[in-house]
Amino acid sequence: MLYHLFNDFNIQMPGVGLWTYISFRSGIALILSLFISTIIGKRIIEKLKKMQIGELVRDLGLEGENTKKGTPTMGGIIIIISILLPCLLVGRLNSLYMILMLVTTVWLGILGFADDYIKVIKKDKEGLHGKFKIIGQVGLGIIVGVTLYLSPDFVIRENVEVPGSNGTEIEYRADNVKSTQTTIPFVKNHNFDYADLVPFAGKYQEQAGWIIFVLMVILVVTAVSNSANLTDGVDGLATGLSAIIGVVLGILAYFSGHIAYASYFNIMYIPGSEELVVYMAAFIGATIGFLWYNAHPAQVFMGDTGSLTLGGIIAVFAILIHKELLIPILCGVFFVEALSVIIQTTYFKYTKKRTGEGRRVFKMSPLHHHFQKAGNSGINALIQRPLAIIPETKMVTRFWIVGIILAVITLVTLKIR
């Protein structure tokens, strides 16, 4: 809004030129989101308390579990508001990159809110039926994938390596093109084209490549959104990890939208993607501000309103800058948390079918609960080696450290080929 006010109406006053700079608008978005999430967030928490919208806690035998009962939930509303308002104020609203991210935020925010509403207000512990969550996530994936295919605004300029006086140099093709290419680590030119998966399609290879791409978008959105949801089980874990991931994605978006930096890292140049830095600045500010209240002992939980939204935002953002194949590294903690649930469920069903008694690999899943629960399981149970309970604050801090290491590795991979 302010960007268009100062630029579209040609207002002449000192400082107006600053609004053309991504760095300035990103800084304003970060400050605004921090202010909104901390100041307005406090009022929202008080409102949730008055409405008695508290967390329903099941007795799972976890350390400190009973102290969380009644803590206000649905705090993801704070994160969503803290992202939307700064973006609407300082973002370039005619950018389809920004529009898609705002649609993603609202779409998944509504989906998560519906789940929390059924759980907390309607007192149905099951919440929104799983198939409706999947339908919502798949629907968003289709919207994003098809928009990227149809809109002429989403283009790239491919990077190519050419011999130079100082060795191999990076140049860019002259024209912007629509492409199903994405960045992949550890290969020579960091590019992978989904169309290469369907060479048998002949003259329809490009169209078939887009079908593969849309299916990948659906998979990534669904997987990351649900993984973030599973990770949100202890105070500050999902919030802190999301902020760390957001910093890396913001850096990658800035590099991708700046041809000089894109050349240095040998990644494709994506015209217009620099506007995403403004959005991600608001995202980082919102998550850090929410962490002020969500850190142990939490004064508020984000609920599915927040966790489904955070995961979906990360997924769509990575897709828009063609970095979705870096997600397994960058979001490694989310991935392991989801994998622990899959392993636990699969092994339990398998052993119950084979022996009549279900066995567990972990004391409890997702993985963070494994470190909170007393007793042994899996290999430790066989060798009778006791496992100590890790205090929640220490465990969360260690997961953050792992998240930071993975973030650094993600950036380093772009220089390894």
Structure description:
With 417 residues, the protein is mainly α. It folds into 2 domains: 23-57 and 67-158 and 188-330 and 395-415, no CATH class; 341-386, no CATH class. It has 15 helices and 4 strands. The chain has helices at residues 2-8, 22-50, 76-90, 96-121, 130-150, 205-231, 237-256, 259-264, 275-294, 303-320, 327-330, 332-355, 367-370, 378-382, 392-412, and strands spanning 159-164, 167-172, 181-183, 191-193. The strands form 2 sheets. Strands 1-2 form a two-stranded antiparallel ribbon. Strands 3-4 form a two-stranded antiparallel sheet. Strand 1 and strand 2 form a beta hairpin. Helix 2 runs parallel beside helix 9 (275-294) and helix 7 packs parallel to helix 15. The two termini are 42 Å apart. The mean pLDDT is 88.
Q: Briefly, what is this?
A:
The chain is mostly helical. The chain has helices at residues 2-8, 22-50, 76-90, 96-121, 130-150, 205-231, 237-256, 259-264, 275-294, 303-320, 327-330, 332-355, 367-370, 378-382, 392-412; strands spanning 159-164, 167-172, 181-183, 191-193. It has two domains: 23-57 and 67-158 and 188-330 and 395-415, no CATH class; 341-386, no CATH class.
